[in-house]
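hiii, so i know i said id send this last week but things got crazy w the move. better late than never?? heres the sequnce for the chain we talked about at the cafe, plus the structure i predicted for it. fair warning i was half asleep when i ran it
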Amino acid sequence: MDREAREHYSVVIQAKDMAGQVGGLSGSTTVNITLTDVNDNPPKFPQKNYQVFVPESAQVGKPVGKIKANDEDIGINAEIKYSILNPEGAGISVRRDAAEGRAGFMPLNYEKKKQYSLHISAENTHLDPRFTYLGSFKDDATLKITVGDVDEPPVFSMDYYIMEVYENAKVGTEVGAVTARDPDSKNSPVRYFIERREDKEVYFDIESISGVIRTTQLLDREDTPWHNITVMATEEDNPSLQSHVPVTVQVLDVNDNPPMINTEDEIIICESTRAGQASPTTVIQTITAVDKDDFANGKGFSFSFPGGIPANPNFTIKDNEGTYVGCKKSY
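okay and structure toks below
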C-alpha cells in the first residue's frame, strides 16, 4: 500500500446470521483506515540547475538565495539536510529553514571572484533501513551565483594610524601619511580631507592628493601630548562615497621647560644652638624641584646659589641622594 497515492480508506463490513441463508438478519459497520507514513521516498529537487544574482555589497550572513527539495513523505520522514559538496563553497553556508535551503555568504568581492558554482545536496535526516534497497535517499542540484559589481568607497591601507612629531616643530612639518585606494576595477583617484569640528582648534592639515599630514601651528606636549583626528577619503569620480580612519598623533618631548623649585616658604631658624647639640652643619630645609618636561628630559637636577649675588657664608647647599638640603654652619 502506498500512502502517497492514497492515505485514507473506508471499508464497509456486513455480518449475517443463519450462515447467510434467506430469512437471516444482518448488520453492517464502516471501518475508516488511515495509513501511517514510512520514509520510502527520497527528496527531489524540482530542477537540476538554479541561478541567483547577488550584489557584492550583500550583508554577510544574510540569505541571498533559496532552493527547495520536495519529499512526498511527511513529518520527520520529510526532514531534509542541505550541504555544499564542492570546495568552491568554502566560507559559504547553506542552512535549513523550514523545508528550504538558504545560502548565506562570506564577504563578496566582484573584483576577486565574479561567479560561484555550488553543488548542493539534499538528504533525509531520518533513514529507514527497511527501504535502503530503493537507493540513496538524497538528491543534488547546481546553484550558480553571479556576483554583481557595486561602486564601493575607498579602502585605507590600515584600520588606524599612529604618528609621532616633536613639540615645537616648525609649522608645516610632515607628521606622516595615510593611503587609500578605490577597490573597484576602475581604480578612481582618491582625495583626502581632515574632518573638522567647530569646537576643536586646528593643528594639522592634509594634502588632498598625497595624503601627507602636516602641522599648521606649534605643538606643546605639556599642553596636549596626544591629538586624535579623523581622515576622510573620497573618490574623485564619486565624492558621495566616503571612508573614515582614525589617526592618533603623539607629541614627543623636547627639553623646553626650566625646573621649578616647588617651595617658596619662609625659613625660620633659631639664633644659636646649645653647646653639645651642634653638629658640623644643621639641616634647615630640604629643597626639591619639578620639571614639566618628560622624565627623560626632566630627571636629575643640580642646585646652586645664583651667580652675581654675594653668598652668605653661614649657609651651604648639599646633595642629599638626589635632593638637596640647605644647611647652616655651626660655630
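btw The radius of gyration is 44 Å. thought thatd interest u
miss u guys!!
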